[in-house]
Amino acid sequence: MEFESIPTVPTADEILDRSFRRAASKMKLKKNKDRANEEFVRAVSQAIHDRLVKVMQSFPDFDSVPAFYRDIVDIMWGLDRVRKALGGVGWAARWARTHGPGLAYQTRKSENPSQIRKRAVARLSSVVHQIEDDLLFLNEVRNVIRKLPHVSDEFTVVVAGYPNVGKSSFIRLVSTATPVVASYPFTTKGIIVGHRAIGRERMQFIDTPGVLDRPAEDRSGIERQALTAMINLASVILVIIDASEHCGYPLEDQFRLLHEVEEMVDVPIQVVVNKSDITYFDGYINMSTETGEGVDEVLENLMAYRKKSDEEMQGIPG
Ligand SMILES: Nc1nc2c(ncn2[C@@H]2O[C@H](COP(=O)(O)OP(=O)(O)O)[C@@H](O)[C@H]2O)c(=O)[nH]1
Ligand SMILES: [Mg+2]
């Protein structure tokens, strides 16, 4: 997503200041001082229009972004509220374009052009100030969405498990490019997103600290929604268990989390026991992200789901 390139959304005053400055510097080039007031109003309204359009265009069309982003925006603020704010900016931009030329013309016709100019500028300022809250709100949205993890619609493994079981270690180990740390607005912890190149294709791995690492009863409503958004990303969920219990959580709790995840989701779940260098646990795939033991087997298992999901998409019976 190109979210990280959304520039800061200017405040109403910043838009006005910059538009006045741009208009004023344009005026310096004009030889004909008679029409200075008219030209100034024209230039200010044009500059305001251009800046507001730029704000609108810097935001993605939330109808066409991957569902993950739409979900998050909807959970955080409600899509309607964001659309309304963008609509407000659009309204002000249109106002400046529609009324600017008329205001400029009145300035030319007037006996007292400088007074009429001031009035015109005051009206333009008032319109921009009417969308002050929209601009502030959009900047808040911008500050959050620009730090979201980059995710695409490719095959995605969401890695779940209690804290310290080795989720991040696993992603770091299997990623062929350095994983990126991003933020997920519902948790203070950084989320790691990694990719593994498999031939010409890729597999995406995403971490879930603070999201899919403890029992559901502890979750608030918004956290449950945040969890759903994360799960919706998953082609398969990899649940990591630490049989050594070095993570600090008893096996019983870890398996309870696994069963909860099983109840909660429709996507396939792959279970793996990590830290086999300390404790080997019969009946499961064991791996160690420390020694690398078993990691290939885990990847092969995940790959098998990938083939299956490809076949499903092509309508080939599995
Ligand atoms: N002995 C051993 N330690 C591991 C293994 N995998 C992870 N760790 C350690 O467990 C701790 C937590 O790992 P981390 O990947 O941060 O866990 P996360 O909280 O689930 O992301 C770190 O100190 C790792 O070095 C493993 O296979 N064997
Ligand atoms: Mg971690």
Please summarize what this structure is.
The protein has 318 residues and is an alpha/beta fold.
How does the overall form come out from the CA principal axes? elongated
User: So how many helices?
Assistant: 10
User: Average pLDDT value?
Assistant: 91
- Write down the oligomeric state: single chain
Count of distinct structural domains? 2
> Strand tally, please?
7
CATH topology of the largest domain: Rossmann fold
Structural class: alpha/beta
Distance between the termini: 32 Å
CATH architecture descriptor of the largest domain: 3-Layer(aba) Sandwich
Uncertain runs with pLDDT below 50, 5 residues or more? none
Rg over CA atoms, rounded to whole Å, is 27 Å
| Distinct ligands, ions and cofactors found in the model | guanosine-5'-diphosphate, magnesium ion
Provide the CATH top-level class of the largest domain. Answer: Alpha Beta
Helical coverage, percent range: 40-55%
Write out the CATH superfamily name of the largest domain: P-loop containing nucleotide triphosphate hydrolases
Sheet having the most strands: 7 strands, mixed
Strand order in the largest sheet? 2-3-4-1-5-6-7
Instruction: Tell me the series of helices and strands, N- to C-terminal.
Output: HHHHHHEHEEEHEHEEH
Give the amount of beta strand, in percent: 5-15%
Describe the protein in words.
It is elongated and about 95 Å long. It has a seven-stranded mixed sheet with strand order 2-3-4-1-5-6-7, with helices on both faces. Helix 1 packs across helix 2 (36-58) and helix 3 (67-76) packs antiparallel against helix 8 (221-232). The protein starts with 11 loop residues before the first helix and ends in a 5-residue tail after the last helix. It is built from ten helices and seven strands. The chain is α/β, with parallel strands linked by helices and 318 residues long. It has helices at 12-29, 36-58, 67-76, 79-109, 113-130, 132-145, 167-174, 221-232, 251-264, 295-313; strands at 156-160, 180-183, 190-198, 201-206, 236-242, 269-274, 285-286. Helices cover 53% and strands 12% of the residues. The chain folds into two domains: 3-145, Four Helix Bundle (Hemerythrin (Met), subunit A); 156-313, Rossmann fold (3-Layer(aba) Sandwich), CATH 3.40.50.300. Magnesium ion binds next to helix 7.
